[in-house]
Amino acid sequence: MSEVVLITGGARSGKSRHALEVAGRRERGRVYIATAEPFDDDMRSRIREHRLERGDSFETVEAPLDLTGALGSIPGNTEVAVVDCLTVWLGNLMHHRGEDEDSFPEVSAFLKTLDRPPCDLVLVTNEVGMGMIPESRLARWFRDSLGRLNQEVARRADRVVLMASGLPIAIKGEER
Predict the structure, then answer these.
(1) How many structural domains does the chain have?
(2) Domain carrying residue 25
(3) DSSP assignment string, 55-74
(4) pLDDT tens for each residue of 117-131
(5) Which among 24, 60, 121, 136 has most CB atoms closer than 10 A?
(6) What is the distance between the alpha carbons of residues 146 and 129, in angstroms, rounded to a whole number?
(7) Where in the sequence numbering do the catalytic residues fall?
(8) Contact 168, 17 (CB under 8 A)
């Protein structure tokens, strides 16, 4: 049975690096599912940085909106897929679908995929609910929606790792 690992933490806490380390333990069949869209210079720089970090040892699939479709279409010999990251993916859905929606069918479909993943999955997300209360209604809605998504993913995950200052802390299952 395939394993689902959720890696969460704050900005620049080492989540992506740790996800690549976990997935890099497989010798072959590695896929990196990127959810970011290069909408400004900062995001283009981050995307470039992540590409350099993973090198050519992962096949890259771009999935800013259709994460479930991307997971369903990865090659059959894939041993592990890194999804980086759920935070950006949810933000993309909110941006493209509008802020009037309370739920997204894409999220429900993704959560169903976690019940029978196509391969081992290493999922990256941000823990955004530990700081100040956001000032705007939209930012609070995003924080709350991501918090609910993270809870559902963590419930389904075999392992959950919290990254703090570059260090992995196992909060569900054992860190390997």
Answers:
(1) 1
(2) 4-172
(3) TTSSEEEE-SS-HHHHHHTS
(4) 999 999 999 999 888
(5) 121
(6) 9
(7) 50
(8) no
Q: 170: Cβ–Cβ under 8 A, 6 or more apart, which residues? A: 159, 160, 161
Q: Tell me the Ramachandran region of residue 120: left when phi exceeds 0, alpha when psi lies from -120 to 50, beta otherwise.
A: beta
Q: How far apart are CA 127 and CA 74, in angstroms?
A: 27
Q: Are 31 and 80 in contact (CB under 8 A)?
A: yes
DSSP 9: E
Mean confidence (pLDDT) of the chain:
91
Q: Tokens for 70, please give them.
A: 């991307």
The pTM (predicted TM-score) of the whole model is 0.92
Q: How many residues does the chain have?
A: 176
* Rg from Cα positions in the chain: 15
Residue 134 DSSP code: P
Residues 113 and 58: their CA atoms lie apart, in Å, by 21
